[in-house]
Each structure stands twice: as C-alpha cells, then as structure tokens.
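Blinded run. Sample ID left blank on purpose so nobody reads anything into the name before looking at the predicted structure. Input follows.
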Amino acid sequence: MSRIKFGTDGWRAVIAEEYTFDNVRRCSQGFATYLIEKGHQGKFVIIGYDKRFHSENFAKAATEVLTANGFIVYLTKDATPTPVISYSVVNNKAVGAINITASHNPPTDNGFKVRDPFGGAIPPEDLMRIEQLIPESAIEAKRIPFKDALASNKVVYFDASIEYKKHISTLVDLESIKHAGLKILVDPMWGNNSNWFTELLSGGKTEVIEIHNHRNPIFPEMSRPEPIPPNIDVGLQKTREIGADVLVITDGDGDRVGIGDENGIFLNQLQVYALLAYYMLEVKKERGPIVKTLSTTSMLNKLGKIYNVPVHETGVGFKYVAPKMIETNALIGGEESGGYAFRGNVPERDGILAGLYFLDMMVKLKKTPSELLKLLFCVVGDHFYDRIDSPFSGDRKQKEKNILNAQPELIGGLKVLSLNSSDGFKFSLEDGGWLLIRFSGTEPIIRVYCETTHADKVQMILKDGLRIAGIEK
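Blinded prediction complete.
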C-alpha cells in the first residue's frame, strides 16, 4: 500500500483514492503503537470528527483499532469542533486524540489529525515517529468490530460541548456581548461550529444570524471551507444586506476564524492576529510571550517592543507553535492561516474563542471592526498583506534549489536584507516587510505571501515572488 506522510497538521487525501477505511486503520495503528511506546497503553483517547462525507464512519474505524490495542475511547456523540476535542483531551485526562477532519480542504478530501496530552499538535519529531510506525498493510492493524467494542464498554459516547462551554464562560465576558445589542452574522461554512455562537450568545439584546449552518459536505457557495476570499464572499455580501455589525467566519472544523467588518470588507488574518494580540495586551492587560510563525505579521514584533514582551518565531504549523507556547507559557500563538491560541486554554487553534475575544474587544472598546483596525494602525503603522496560491508540477527539490540560488537584490523595488530558509524561503525587505515562498505540506501548491508598509508595492512583490518561484517569467 502507499506510504502515508503527515503534513503540517496530520494527513489528508482524496476520499476513496488514498483516503480509505484501510488507510485510516493503518494511521490509527501507527498512533496506537506510538502511544504504547510512550507508556500509555490502557488509557483514555478522544476520537472526534467533522461533517464531511463518511467522517463519523471513519471515526468508528479508528475506534476499532484503538480499542483493539487496549485503549478506552471517548467518542464524540456528534460532529465536534477541533478546539472542543482538544479541550476534551485535557479535561478528561486523555493521552491524546484522533480527529477525523480535512479542516479547510476541498470537499473531495478527508483527513486524520492527532493531538498530544496537552490537546495540542504533536511535535514534528513525534509525527515522524508515528509515520514510521504506520504498518504497510491494513492487515497488520489490530481491530475489534465497533459493535463489539461498544458492547464491551471499551467505547464511551460523550458530549464534549458541555464542559467546553463551562470553560469558555470563565475566559470570556459572554454577558457583556449578549447585552451589547450587536447584530452578528456568523458563517460556520457548513462545518462543526454551526449554532455554537447562537447558543453561547442568546438570551440578550444581541442578535446572532447564521448562514451555511447545517451539514452539506459539498460546501455550496464556496470552493472549500477556508475563511478567506472568495469562499466568504456570500457572507460579506450578506453582511452588507442585513446591516450586520460584524461577520464571524469559522472554517470546516472550527479551529480557524475570519472577520468581516461592518462594511462587508474582509480583515485579513495578519490584521486579526495583531488585533487579538493588542486585545490581550491592552484590553485584558495581560503580559507574556507572543509566538508567531514566520508567515505571519511583523506587527507582532512592533507590539512586542511597545509592551516589552518577547516574540518567538517558528516554522509554519501548530506542530511548531504549540510546543513553543508550552515551553514559554505564551500569552498568544498563531499563524497566517487564521488559527490563534491563547493562554488559559489549550495550546491549539480555537476559532470559537478567537471569535468571542474579537467580539469582546468590540464591546469593551466600543468600536466597529474598521475602527479597531484604524486604532491598530495608529499604534503600529499601516501594513498591507496579500497571498497567492498556485498549483505546481515538476520536481519540488529542483524548484527549491532554484529559489535558493535566485539571490535577488530587489523585490518589488525594495532592497532584500536577508533570507531565512528554515521553513520555506522568507526574504526580509528594507521596509520591515517580507516575501515568503513556501510549498504546502498537504497539497501540490506553492504559496507566495508578502507583507509591506507600502500599499502600492504589494502586487509588485507578489509578482516578483512568482517569478522567483518559477511560476511566472
């Protein structure tokens, strides 16, 4: 059978091609063997899933393998947001979790995520060990038929939402948001966060309106459940039509968040991350390190200097962010994809908590999203960002070699100061901005990102990035 390789956040593949019941069982056996190596045999493991095609049945297949290896499985009763699954690991003192989800991938895909005892992403070296332990054939995976595992009390169905909602109420001033009189539009993108904001914020003057909030695994009106344009265009239009004060968008498994302002204009992920960091430092008056991936905003470095807190930069993915957050007791951690984690919660992306914190910032500062962005720019200066994702073919290693050897002196007319090739290729520019060229860890896609203080140079920088990457001449 084909070799299974984990990307930045687990394994994803096309359903019925590589993503099969047999391959899910192989991955599950690799994870079970890894946990046994760690001395966890016989302990609790959480298994959850999203609303994609057959996810609940793939979760049962994983359950069959874990129980056959001597573990007790806590299986979610329904499709459950990824951050809720992560919190359940800690709350139930489990040794880890399996989450059947492809997050923001196209509807053709499904995926297999694993979590550590802290509820966070597993570090790269341990992911590699899990890969090594995946058997070559599904025949080698131990298995108890699901009905037999259930009958022998090796499987416990549970509602993960109950304890998570209690936990969230200790972190966020929900009552203030409920009674603020806001009109909030929520787009859960047909995913696991459907009705969560409605349930958490009902009972006051605030009105919560949801769209795309039931199960539909083909994700109509978007190409994929990723909270960036053009997937959110319907939500942005609806914001304008109903006069909403804010649009909160979460991705398919609920761990990422996007924000649209009161005018139906998207606030990009770098702006939202900087705003959430500002909220933690200025509104909540907390202090602690900031952890950022190399693909996210330099506004965080400026906030770090202003508030005298350290800023740590990691590779892309929460498999790097989560361990650094634990090591440094970080205040906040995040990445360019719209995933943000917070101290006091698990070291994992949480689209529910991030969305609630953003709403609380609006209430506490009495400002609209566009006014919050103006306030941020008054503090750190104007910053402009964009990204292009492009399919690629040919030899990846040769393309990487060509990028490394390009050695441009100018990008977008700005002098290149340095190159960081630790995870992709990040060119630092003279204005404090940057260009990053990076290959996706889960798809045959090359990503070109940039941030600059010059609005008129964004497209020039991206065009030079595509040229350096060999996508355009």
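Unblinding after everyone has recorded impressions. The mean pLDDT is 95.
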